[in-house]
Amino acid sequence: MKKHFILTITLVAGLAALLISGRASAQQAAVKRTDLQRHDLSTPGKETVQARIDFAPGAAFGKHKHPGEEIIYVIEGALEYEVEGKAPVVLKAGDVLFIPAGTIHAARNVGNYNGAELATYVVEKGKPLVVMDTTAVSGKRP
C-alpha cells in the first residue's frame, strides 16, 4: 500500500511538472525575438544590440532586467509595460519607452492582434542580455 501511495504521488508530481513546463513553453513560443544587429561601441566594454520582439495576442514576457539601458519603439499593436517603481503603461505603434539599466520590467500584449517592438540595448559586453527576476512573487500577470 505504501508503494502504491508513493507511486501515485510521483505520477501526480510528474504530471504537474509536465503541465507547468508545457505552459511555459507555449508562453515562450508566443514571444519571438529576432536579433537584427550587434556591434561593439567606442566605449570600452559596451555593445549595442537591436532586436525585434513579437508578441502574440495575450502573450507576456515576465519580469526581467538587462545589464544596460533598453530603448523601446513600439512597431505595432498595444503593449503594456510594467516598469519597477512606475505605474503600468500601455503603448501603441509609434510610442517609445526608456528603461534604465538593471530596472526590473515586464511586457505583455493587451491587444487582439500581434504586438511588436524594436528594442535597442546599450549593455555591458559579455553579460547575459536578459536576466529573469526570480525574486518577484506576484499574482498579477506580467
From TrEMBL:
Record's keyword annotation contains DNA-binding: no
Keyword match Zinc-finger: no
Keywords of this entry: Signal
Domain Cupin type-2: 53-112
Transmembrane segments: none
Pfam families attached to this UniProt entry: Cupin_2
This protein's name: Cupin domain-containing protein
